[in-house]
């Protein structure tokens, strides 16, 4: 599979150019034969920059996709686990709004009843589940992005790039949620049912004994409802925000920005995308939280019982959590790409063939 995708990736309009040293007068006088003078030499700085931009693998290669998946594991697993206390309070506000009346009240009640250790409930299924989700989310996004862009062709991939981001991220998240669902179900039981279980080792066997495999996957449909719109917004909004920041805000082209400067742009774009992600996915998140707590309820029954006002409980906490989460995830993911020297395509530019068709060039 990877070999066929790698072949397609070479013509992918989102592929970064492979910078390498060429013989444009860089060689010293000993290696220059006598003859007519050639083009002017490149400066040492430009040559050094080209060397620095040498990538560790080709865009769309098997190694590229595997390391992108590793970046997804690190970015999603660590950030979701770090925000377990906020996630716990948010879930309890959704499940029992009478008791947990707000984010600060929720923390106060949780600390009073469970102590500081209680805020870490559910960390193990959170880490495992979201690591697996990150692997599929980021790894498959890169795969589907290459596949769909080559199906569209260079010009249409540019013109329809927002739709391409939406389609690639939705496809990736479909598989990511299947990997996440079992751990998400266990996490919600641990966090929202006092006395049910305190650890994953206790919760998983108990859930299987009571309901079989259904206990782990009954929430996958509402999880798709929550996560697919979230991920579509996360990737499409991020990609277009990065493009807009470099075009209208950053005072110099991306190629002239240092790696730290590029990562700052990544963080800002990630936070903006995260705010929109939280809003579009919050109603489904409320349904998932209640559904995994209750036995025998369906998503439609929970939605009907919560009503319009009920599904928006805990939105402020979720905006803080998801905004920070998304910004950190993109920052970590991009940092992993920098560390492993993976190709990081610049914001897409209109292909020359399309410019000629539109009469933008001679």
TrEMBL record:
Keyword Cell cycle attached: no
Catalysed reaction equations from the record: phosphate(in) + H(+)(in) = phosphate(out) + H(+)(out)
Taxonomy of the source species: Eukaryota, Metazoa, Chordata, Craniata, Vertebrata
Chief location bin: mitochondrion
Solcar repeats (start-end): 63-147, 160-244, 261-339
Annotated transmembrane regions: 263-284, 315-333
Designated gene of the protein: SLC25A3
Subunit structure: Interacts with PPIF; the interaction is impaired by CsA.
Known function: Inorganic ion transporter that transports phosphate or copper ions across the mitochondrial inner membrane into the matrix compartment. Mediates proton-coupled symport of phosphate ions necessary for mitochondrial oxidative phosphorylation of ADP to ATP. Transports copper ions probably in the form of anionic copper(I) complexes to maintain mitochondrial matrix copper pool and to supply copper for cytochrome C oxidase complex assembly. May also play a role in regulation of the mitochondrial permeability transition pore (mPTP).
Species: Acinonyx jubatus (Cheetah)
Keywords recorded for this protein, A-Z: Membrane, Mitochondrion, Mitochondrion inner membrane, Repeat, Transit peptide, Transmembrane, Transmembrane helix, Transport
One function term, GO molecular function aspect: phosphate transmembrane transporter activity
InterPro entries: MCP_dom_sf, MCP_transmembrane, SLC25A3/Pic2/Mir1-like
Membrane topology (UniProt): Multi-pass membrane protein
Claim: Transit peptide is one of the keywords in the record: yes
Assigned GO CC terms: mitochondrial inner membrane
Name of the protein: Solute carrier family 25 member 3
Similarity field: Belongs to the mitochondrial carrier (TC 2.A.29) family.
GO BP: mitochondrial phosphate ion transmembrane transport
């Amino acid at each position: 599979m990877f070999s066929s995708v790698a072949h397609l990736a070479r013509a992918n309009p989102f592929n970064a150019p492979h910078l390498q040293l060429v013989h444009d007068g860089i060689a010293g006088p000993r290696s220059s034969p006598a003859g007519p003078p050639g083009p002017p030499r490149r400066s040492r700085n430009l040559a050094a920059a080209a060397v620095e931009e040498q990538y560790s693998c080709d865009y769309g290669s098997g190694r590229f996709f595997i390391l992108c998946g590793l970046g997804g594991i690190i970015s999603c697993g660590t950030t979701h686990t770090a925000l377990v206390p906020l996630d716990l309070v948010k879930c309890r506000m959704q499940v029992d709004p009478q008791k947990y009346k707000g984010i600060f009240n929720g923390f106060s009640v949780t600390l009073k009843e469970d102590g500081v250790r209680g805020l870490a409930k559910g960390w193990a299924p959170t880490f495992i589940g979201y690591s697996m989700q990150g692997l599929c989310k980021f790894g498959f996004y890169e795969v589907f992005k290459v596949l769909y862009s080559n199906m569209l062709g260079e010009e249409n991939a540019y013109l329809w790039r927002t739709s391409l981001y939406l389609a690639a991220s939705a496809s990736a998240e479909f598989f990511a949620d299947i990997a996440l669902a079992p751990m998400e179900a266990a996490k919600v039981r641990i966090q929202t049912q006092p006395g049910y279980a305190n650890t994953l080792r206790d919760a998983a066997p108990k859930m299987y004994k009571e309901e079989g495999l259904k206990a782990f996957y009954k929430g996958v449909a509402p999880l798709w409802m929550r996560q697919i719109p979230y991920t579509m917004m996360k990737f499409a909004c991020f990609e277009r925000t990065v493009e807009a920041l470099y075009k209208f805000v950053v005072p110099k082209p991306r190629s002239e920005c240092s790696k730290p400067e590029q990562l700052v742009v990544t963080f800002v774009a990630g936070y903006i995308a995260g705010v929109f992600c939280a809003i579009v996915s919050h109603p489904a998140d409320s349904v998932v939280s209640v559904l995994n707590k209750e036995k025998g309820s369906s998503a439609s029954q929970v939605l009907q019982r919560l009503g319009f006002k009920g599904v928006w409980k805990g939105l402020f906490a979720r905006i803080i959590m998801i905004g920070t989460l998304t910004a950190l995830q993109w920052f970590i993911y991009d940092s992993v790409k920098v560390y492993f020297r993976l190709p990081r395509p610049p914001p897409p530019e209109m292909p020359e063939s399309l410019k000629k068709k539109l009469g933008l060039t001679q």
